[in-house]
Amino acid sequence: MKVRTRVAPSPTGDPHVGTAYMALFCLAFARQHGGQFILRIEDTDAARSTPESEQQILDSLRWLGLDWDEGPDVEGPFGPYRQSERVAQGLYQQYSDQLIENGHAFKCYCTSERLDEMRKAQTEKGEFAKYDGQCIHLSAADHAEHLKSETPFVVRMVIPTQGTCIVKDKLRDDIEIDWSQIDMQVLLKSDGNPTYHLAVVVDDHLMEITHIIRGEEWINSAPKHILLHQYLGWDMPELVHMPLLRNPDKSKLSKRKNPTSILFYQRMGFLPEAVLNYLGMLGWSMPDGEEKFSFQEMVDSFDIDRISLGAPVFDVDKLTWLNGRWLRESLSDDEFADRLVDWAYNRENLLKVIPLIRERVDVFTELAGKASFLLEGMPELTEADLQIKNLEPEDVLKILQFALWKSEALRTWERDLLNDLFMQLAEQMDRKVRDVLAPIFVAIAGSPVSPPLFDSMAILGPDMCRARLRHSINILGGVGKKKMKKLEKEFNALGR
Fold it and tell me: Where in the sequence numbering do the catalytic residues fall?
């Protein structure tokens, strides 16, 4: 059987463990069948996609050992492997035009104001909020008038008004979804860029994808994708919807409750083999029940029917335990030393740290104390450590939360940009810079005194810094839903 699987992340933020989770199962299935695994970058969200984020995705997947056969940096016969480059080739426009010509899609000129009013009225009546089809019945004369006046439009797909769609999933019984619950999906936006739904169908077909392994949150979108394949006369790939990773409280895995960036675990000193092992055991189990296994052992024993449909909990404590087994059972002393040097004590890292501490060091024995916070995970802090002179506890919590939100919006992580960011925050909060920076110093360094803050944050990287800010917020009791809404409103009022 010819097998081609793919993973298609968007370069709009930190590389997510959920991406690695899906990539692992795509790669394991492809390798089991001697097939190909493709990495495709879905970067049509030009406002949020960045080259830096794309590179982080590539680096993090490679760190885990998830190598692809074709991708943006591996030449293949089905490129380009960035959607933005495929947009430039006119691929999506071509199929959008074909769908319109065959009566399977239509131009919609409705304004956002009209759509908001329509959905509000439907909701008030207790109806399912979806497009009402107003523009589907426009005449040729109507379209000509809109063309003449250059009215902005989107392209929507035609959806049946009656009946059900049968979604066949390799892990589940047939899933029946009423067409009445499916919206007339926008396929092409007014700027000419495709939505996910058109792009993923076109790309999967042209790249000859045979099996789509993705999260179960996409089950409700499957009818649109099945219908588009039918409209375009293409065979539908087999679907495998994986259970979503969960926080310990069973909510969907999120950075507010768990570190979700792959690079965070790299920076924390986890072994890539252990992280990959843990992701594998979250959705699948070895026939003999052994929890510690290598990727090759997983491939050798892989059976897609053994994927569990339970709600897998991403538990950092369990991952830490498993990582400990890998350290003790799989590494010789020489290998342990090599990994330790590669992780923190390599020359490149030392050259970043030395300029920050050399003026404070008289003998080498002082080095460990001065640089320890750059090598540790979460600083050992108490509420007392976060009691800051001139600040009430509520103010400290607010500053840390605002600093976290500001840092999450920062696209490029550099010393000068960090300096500007927090100077701006102090000005927006109408506070002295030293008062705003004081709790941030403690959160990042574990003490009120450290090497230069912004230089240190640049070395630690965004994943570790954001995790330490969240850690300090949790030490102060965290932020409940009611308080969070209040802070979000106040933060938004600051301006960006």
Answer: 255
